[in-house]
Amino acid sequence: MKWAVVTFYFLSILHIHFRGKVRLPFMRQLFDHSSFMAPINLFMHVFSRVPSTPYFDVSQFKDLEPLQQNWQVIREEAENLLKLQKIKAAENHDDAGFNSFFKNGWKRFYLKWYNASHPSAERFCPKTYALLRNIPSVKAAMFAELPPGGKLNPHRDPFAGSLRYHLGLATPNDDRCFIEVDGQRYSWRDGQGVIFDETFIHWAINGSDGDRIILFCDIERPMRFRWAQAINRWLGRTMMTAAASPNETGDQTGGVSKIFYVSHVMGQYRRRFKAWNKNVYKLTKFGLILAVAALIIFV
């Protein structure tokens, strides 16, 4: 039984690794956070009602039309936040989902995050907040900024229960500012939306001289059966809410993000160890991974 579970888990990782045209190096994929979620993501992909393609036609998602129609209203609130310097990186290392993005200039302001509470969103962005509240398929939303020179390295998102929607608000309208999903590029334009599957390898860069502000949303992945949709909804409600991060005091911080802060502090010692001797660090890391795998398999 134990070997069957281990085999299924490994096959799930292979499914994630070979999905799409662009891949991470296999050893990196093996220990990537998307591999830890591989069995869940395999379920999502198998029972998904949408095809396994990098991009989707926005017009097929009729419930998002109010966002498209009100993009200038949404932009006005985003630009006001920008003036107030509210679109920013997490100040206390308490954003487990997007922490690695901050070092390359990316910033955010949460408008909605699954079942978490963000009173600051309603206070600063009442019109956008109201629009989002009336679209149940939008499980998470934020304003996301990528300044000139900002870059997001190639990665897969860990949870396949959603699709990603970007609505251009104040963008450079320049092909040098783009996202690439499974090798296919898209350049943001003001007032235009795009939907893609974030479990394909994707990366982004702003190579222009202008700032880029978008509305960034997680849209619940449509599933083929009601029971599969119910499972997806439950996972989002429990797992993803636990990764909630605050904009400011008074907003909810999920349990995973609280633990991440502790992990960040411990990571400072890890980085010192790595700087002392990289080879010893790699051997120690590999040894610990083997030890954990042995415990899982043989105990």
TrEMBL record:
Keyword check for Metal-binding: no
UniProt keyword terms in alphabetical order: Dioxygenase, Membrane, Oxidoreductase, Transmembrane, Transmembrane helix
Pfam families named in the record: Asp_Arg_Hydrox (PF05118)
Transmembrane segments: 280-298
InterPro entries: Asp/Arg/Pro-Hydrxlase, Asp/Asn_beta-hydroxylase, IPNS-like_sf, Lipid_A_LpxO-like
GO molecular function annotation: dioxygenase activity
Domain Aspartyl/asparaginy/proline hydroxylase span(s) in chain numbering: 68-222
Cited PANTHER family: ASPARTATE BETA-HYDROXYLASE DOMAIN CONTAINING 2, ASPARTATE BETA-HYDROXYLASE DOMAIN-CONTAINING PROTEIN 2
Family: Belongs to the aspartyl/asparaginyl beta-hydroxylase family.
UniProt-recorded name of the protein: Aspartyl/asparaginyl beta-hydroxylase AspH
